Each structure stands twice: as structure tokens, then as C-alpha cells.
Amino acid sequence: MGYYRHHLFFCTNQRPDGAERPSCAQCDSPRLRGYVKKRLKDLGLTGAGGIRANTAGCLDRCEEGPVLVVYPEGVWYTYVDEDDLDEIIESHLIGGKPVERLMLPEPV
Amino acid sequence: MGYYRHHLFFCTNQRPDGAERPSCAQCDSPRLRGYVKKRLKDLGLTGAGGIRANTAGCLDRCEEGPVLVVYPEGVWYTYVDEDDLDEIIESHLIGGKPVERLMLPEPV
Q: Nearest CA to CA, how far is B26 from chain A (Å)?
């Protein structure tokens, strides 16, 4: 088993005003990552062997954002709000069943 | 296969002066991550299906730092300089053979 059972990376990149590509931070990703971090802590799921929710720089899937990726399984998600993130926590991270409606497409 | 063949996350966290735990950024991790990013680009290894080197917030293995993790395989490394990172690129990312001398211990 890896150091973390699930390791989440939220893109929290903010491009300068007027940039051509959208920024995940425009969709409130820093705050929503903080929501997940706190929720995992409240549920007692953090620490080595548990689940960690990290910030990350641009994950280069900007047009599909806001994006996060869950490793080691390599499942990519988009999300809108706390409800979406609660569903990822409960179904995927706790229940082991990825949330298909929020998953990004695999490369073809 | 996942969206990236290898996805690297470098802790680039900088704590305030006087913090009790060390910071990976004190070991020049933002610059060294930039070195790997550029090296991968020069080698033509970036993009979907390729290799990406991201910045990340604190990965919570501060005492073992500076740290980076390679997913989906979940191999954790420490490193000192460009030579160490070149070895990770050539042996692990290109050659498929992780660099044991730089790997962090697995949890017991």
C-alpha cells in the first residue's frame, strides 16, 4: 500500500486577468479544496495510510475545470460545489465506487 | 492508461520563518521542479499520455524533505540537486527502474 490510501490534488491555479485559458481558481477551487481537507479531518481519515487533499499547480486540463485527480487510481473529476465533493468523499474515497457523472473522459 | 503516464508532484511549500517543521522550499524545490519541467519538455516527454511535473502544497513528509511523489506508482523520493533529478528522469521515468537510493521508506 502507498503512503496515502488516496491522494487528491486540486488544481488551484490562478492565471492573470485576460488569460486565454480558464483558471480552476476562478471556480473557487482553493476554498473547495479547504472544504475537503477539513471534511476528511473531521471524519478521521487523514494521516499516513489515510487520505490527503493537496493543492497543486496547473494540471493542464483547464478547459475541463475545475479539476482534481485522485491517485493512485488516476481518476479525474470536475465538480461544482460541496455536494459534488461530498459525493466523491462518500462514494469513491470511503465506498470505493468512483462517481461516474463527475469523471473526466479518458484520453482516446 | 491514465491521462499522464507519470505524474510528479513536488512539494514547494514554504512555512513562515521560525516554524517548527522544515519546508521543502528551503531546499530550493520550486527551482528544481522548474528544472525537471523544462528537462521533460526538452526531451519531448510532456503532454497527455506523457509526463507532467507539478508543484504541490505540503505533502506532510516534511522531516524527510525535500520530497516528491510519482503517481500512479506512488514512489516517493527525496533529492538534493539536478544530478539526483536527472537520475530519476532517466532511470525511473524513461527506463522504468525506480532509483532505490533516493526512495523514502514505505510506512510500516
A: 18
